[in-house]
């Protein structure tokens, strides 16, 4: 049997149902708005009100946990609220990690580990999560677990790399193990590790990291190679410094800066840009001295180096080059210079010496009184312990006033 409702009755029920739904929605929205209002306040009563109005919202439980942890320093109460938040939203790594940190305060290691692993399961790739987890594992003495999380950090967050590497090194100072299991195969990670080892003067380990960096076949900022070569020279590791220069040249497009049998001086005619690093010319700003590449006056090629002296206190032109050589070998040095009117006692001159022993192998006559290009020549034999030379333009007598201009060009050093 079919019962048909009068049109008026149908309208009544339709209106009633619509009003009920609208009222329910209004109540729901109002409760949420009110809960949000109270939840954004920082006092305990407001946070409790927000949690009562929205018992299924994990955010307010988490805020209560923060209140108990940071304001009341009540770790037990904080843990209860963090646990409630994590159960309401188990996909939030932050809730689990805050719970784990609170369990650490309560010395509940088993519960801390479980909360930590839940957090990693919820978000296994975010560096902040991995960073906190790694530090907790370090405190617990779980070195392998810590290193696995530090690898996540190193793969994702370059800003944390230096600190993460220091902690990895403290936990396991084994270069081979860290290269194999922790350090990502990326230039930036290898460079950060290289810098750490240089700072600790771990020369053998730094060589392994450099080798791994080279094997990526990816370019990087030249200054990192320059810093490493500078360190190697300071440590008297001349052979390794020479190898690093050759490998860096191939990676960075510096093949023109390699030496040859016809000239052991790099960029001797100043035709290339001065790199200020490695085995090219290096320079350091000196008071009363100005260095400039001069395309208007040169002996060969298309420019020379001009050096302007103007004042007292000059002992060095500030331009120099390290030259790897062989011990017990004979070398011939040649260069050209031109000088404007140079005033002052003595004058500038070329010197070549062993930077480690201080043994001087060559000292030219004063580079002055030459309004045309003049040659400078010299032959010397290195001692059994000499593997590196330092070529400079010195001022003799050092420190006395000098004014004038000097050009140098076409510097050569060959083994005889």
Structure, explained:
This protein is an alpha+beta fold. Among the domains are: 1-124, Serine Threonine Protein Phosphatase 5, Tetratricopeptide repeat (Alpha Horseshoe), CATH 1.25.40.10; 282-415, Jelly Rolls, CATH 2.60.120. The protein contains 14 helices and 10 strands. Strands 1-4-9-6-7 form a 5-stranded antiparallel sheet. Strand 6 (347-353) and strand 7 form a beta hairpin. The protein is elongated, with a radius of gyration of 36 Å.
CATH topology term of the domain at 282-415: Jelly Rolls
CATH class of the domain at 282-415: Mainly Beta
* Strand line-up in the sheet with most strands: 1-4-9-6-7
Model regions low in confidence, pLDDT < 50 over at least 5 residues: 21-31
Question: What is the terminal separation in angstroms?
Answer: 122 Å
Determine Rg (CA atoms, Å). 36 Å
Number of helical stretches of at least 4 residues? 14
CATH superfamily of the domain at 282-415: Galactose-binding domain-like
Number of strands: 10
Largest sheet: number of strands, sense, barrel closure: 5 strands, antiparallel
The whole-number mean of residue pLDDT values reads 86
Q: Level of helix content?
A: 40-55%
In the CATH classification, which architecture of the domain at 282-415 applies? Sandwich
Q: What is the ordering of alpha helices and beta strands?
A: HHHHHHHHHHHHHHEEEEEEEEEE
- Sheet/helix structural class: alpha+beta
Strand content: 15-25%
**Mass-distribution shape:** elongated
